[in-house]
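Q: What would this chain look like folded?
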Amino acid sequence: MKSVITVELPQQSYDIVVAPEGVAHLGNWMEPLKLGKKVLLVSNPIVFNHYGAKLNASLAATGFEVSHCILPAGERYKTLNSIQKLYDAALNSRLERSSTIVALGGGVIGDMAGFAAATWLRGIHFVQVPTSLLAMVDAAIGGKTGVNHPKGKNLIGAFHQPRLVLIDPQVLTTLPTREFRAGMAEVIKYGVIWDAELFAQLEAAERLDQPRYISEDLLQTILTRSCQSKAHVVSKDEKEAGLRAILNYGHTIGHAVESLTGYRVVNHGEAVAIGMEAAGRIAVELNLWTPEACDRQRALIEKTGLPTRLPAGLKIDEVVATLQTDKKVQAGKVRFVLPTEIGTVKVTDEVPSAVVHQVLQAIGSP
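A: My prediction, written as structure tokens:
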């Protein structure tokens, strides 16, 4: 079963292809795009060991000349030091303006490879081959690229849209369970902010905590509807001038949690789950959302095996202070994405600090 979703953009639209065995046919999908022959494949050792040979063979069979840059796995390596290694590889490979950087990996690899593509020779082609659920439904789509600063997540970056996003559902068979759950946080996000029908289908599933309990049909639905939601929002607001801000649901407090724990205690999806719980409770306190809807969200998060409480030892005042470094702060005010019903949210900077403190205390570790 294959799906093709187009991200419609003024400058250059592109396709998101959801295709089983897609990794083995990347060259065939890239060939019609009229890209240069030189390709720099960026991955981490774990993913490259699983799929590097298959990708190499596909690209070589269609005439591409492939070189490699293998970077360590993990959010803590999403730094300018890693970007320097990418630049060195680009130079050694003699990449040209017509060349392409291909990202084979999760969101960390995609963000770094995309940032390198955005900045090398003032911008070269970029193709995403996401291998984690989180990257498939979120990070690989929309053109946000970048790295972390020691004081905050994704503070250094650029918008640089891919020419193609190729999603092969079968690579999820080698994804660790914890990483699969992390991706489910973003899927739940789409249900809350945009797609009430997706939310209902997730509620109806018996189990969501491990991929083996999810049927092929449901997985295809998860991937397709999530990608459609992201594509629709990005098509209307490519560079987050308005509507696209809703995609940050759960991310405001989530990013603060990630940053304060050094990107080692919780992964991105777990932080987003905590952030969604916090945002839901804030919405209830402000009478924007019903307690019943908040309970439904919490039950769905917990069904995926994701956390809804802050990590032990995290200080509330530090979380609040870190919110001020968020990219979305305007005129010193933190902007929150808050739900008003399942499938609809609003963006507001009118959240009293007392309410933020109260909610963070409520979800603090027991």
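The longest helix spans residues 216-236.
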